[in-house]
Design brief:
- The chain is mainly α.
- The protein has five helices and no strands.
- The protein has one domain.
- It is flat and about 45 Å long.
- The two termini are 13 Å apart.
Length: 129
C-alpha cells in the first residue's frame, strides 16, 4: 500500500465522520427531537476536529526531538482531554439526559475509521497476487 493511498484515507476520516453525523443527526432529529439531532451533529463535529488536530500535531512534531515531542504531546493531550471533559460537563449541565446523543455523535469517528480500515483491506487484497 503506497503512502498516497494512506494519506487520502486519513484525510477522508473527518469528512466521513461529519457526513455520518449529518445523516444520524437528521434521523435522530426526526425520530426523537431536534435537540438530540443537534447534539449528535456537534459530537461528530467535535470528533472530526479532534482527529484533524491530532493528525496535524503528529505530522508537525514527528521528526522533532523526542524530549520536546514528549512534553508537547503531554500538554496537547491534557488540553484535549480537558476540552472534551468541559464539553461533556456543559452538555450534562444544560441538557440533562441528552448526553447519550452527544456520545453517539462523538463515537461516529469509530465507524469512519472502521470504514477506512475495510476500504484499505480491500485495496490490499485487490493488488495482492
Amino acid at each position: 500500500m503506497n503512502q498516497n493511498h494512506l494519506e487520502a484515507s486519513i484525510k477522508r476520516v473527518p469528512r466521513e465522520t461529519i457526513l455520518l453525523g449529518v445523516i444520524f443527526s437528521i434521523t435522530c432529529g426526526i425520530i426523537f427531537e431536534p435537540v438530540c439531532g443537534i447534539l449528535v451533529f456537534l459530537g461528530a463535529l467535535l470528533s472530526a476536529i479532534g482527529f484533524i488536530a491530532l493528525n496535524s500535531f503528529i505530522n508537525r512534531y514527528l521528526g522533532k526531538k523526542k524530549t520536546m515531542f514528549l512534553r508537547r504531546a503531554i500538554l496537547m493531550y491534557s488540553l484535549r482531554l480537558l476540552l472534551i471533559c468541559l464539553v461533556f460537563l456543559i452538555i450534562i449541565f444544560f441538557f440533562k439526559g441528552k448526553i447519550i446523543a452527544f456520545v453517539a455523535g462523538f463515537s461516529l469517528i469509530v465507524v469512519s475509521v472502521l470504514v477506512e480500515a475495510l476500504r484499505n483491506l480491500a485495496y490490499v487484497k485487490q493488488w495482492k497476487v
